[in-house]
Amino acid sequence: MDWVGIHADKSVWMNKHYTPGRQGRIDKIVIHHNAGVRMSTEDCWHTWQTRKASAHYQVEADGTIGQLVHDWDTAWHATGANSTGIGIEHANIAGAPSWGISEATVEAGAHLVAALCRAYNLGRPTWRVNVYPHQDFNSTACPGLLAGPLRERYMARAQAWYDHMTGAAPAPATTTPTTPTTTDTRQETTMRLIHTTTPWGADAWAEITEHAGADGLDQLGCAIEQKVWGAPHEVTWDEYDWHVRRAWERAARVANLSAEETAKRIAATIPNQPEA
C-alpha cells in the first residue's frame, strides 16, 4: 500500500452500483464491516454485482487493502453520507454474533484512515468529527466491533499514524495480536479477548457495557469470586472465559443480578471449584 499516494495493494473496479463523480467535497470517512467471514476484495465485488451497494475500500483479514471505487466517485455505502464520504469495509474473521476482526485488519484500516485524512486535509482522525460509523447514517449494527470495544484502539492507531505522517511523531510501534495468559488479571482485557474470540462474546460485552461500564466487569468478577471461592483469586484466562460464558448462558441479563445471585448461578455450573 502506498500510504502517501493512496494506491491500494490491489484494485478490482466496480462496473455498476456507484455514481461517477461527487456532489460535494470529501469531508468524512465512514467505517463498515462486511458481516461476512474473511471476505476478499474480489468477494465484495461479486457481492455488489447483485446488491445495490459498494464501498471505496476493502481491508482484508490479513491487512491487504483493495480498492473498488475511485475516491473521486461516489460509492453507495451510507445513505446521506455518500456524496462526501469515503467508505471503508473491514473483513470479519468470525461469524455472528461476534463478527470478530483481526489485528491486521484493525491496523491496516486505521493506517488507511490516517492516510485519507492527511490526503484530503480532514485533520487528525476524530470519532464522529471526520470518522463515522455506518450506524450513524442507517439503521444497522455496522460496523460491529469497530464501533464498540475495538473503537478506541482503532482510533488511537489512526491518530498515531496520522501524527507520524504529518511529522508530529515518530512511526508508531508495530503491534501484535494480544493473546491470553494465565497471569492476566486485567478484566477488561480478558473481556475483550472473550468478545473477539468466542461466538457469544458480543452479547456478553453488550450486557456489561450497557449496565456497568467496562470496569464493571472487574467489580462484578471480584464479588463473584468472593462468593464462590471465599476470596478473590487469580484465575486463568480459560477458566475465566468458561465462568463468564456460563454466567451469560444462565442469566440473560447478569449485570442486573446481585453478585450473590450471580455467584449461585455460576457455582451451579462448576463441577470442581478451584482453591482460593
Automatic annotation (TrEMBL):
Keywords: Cell wall biogenesis/degradation, Hydrolase. It holds the Pfam family Amidase_2. Residues 168-187 are annotated as: Disordered. Residues 15-144 form the N-acetylmuramoyl-L-alanine amidase domain. The keyword Cell wall biogenesis/degradation applies. InterPro entries: Amidase/PGRP_sf (IPR036505), Amidase_domain (IPR002502), NAMLAA_amidase_2 (IPR051206). Its EC number is 3.5.1.28. One of its GO terms (biological process) is peptidoglycan catabolic process. It catalyses: Hydrolyzes the link between N-acetylmuramoyl residues and L-amino acid residues in certain cell-wall glycopeptides. One of its GO terms (molecular function) is N-acetylmuramoyl-L-alanine amidase activity. PANTHER family: N-ACETYLMURAMOYL-L-ALANINE AMIDASE AMID. This is N-acetylmuramoyl-L-alanine amidase.
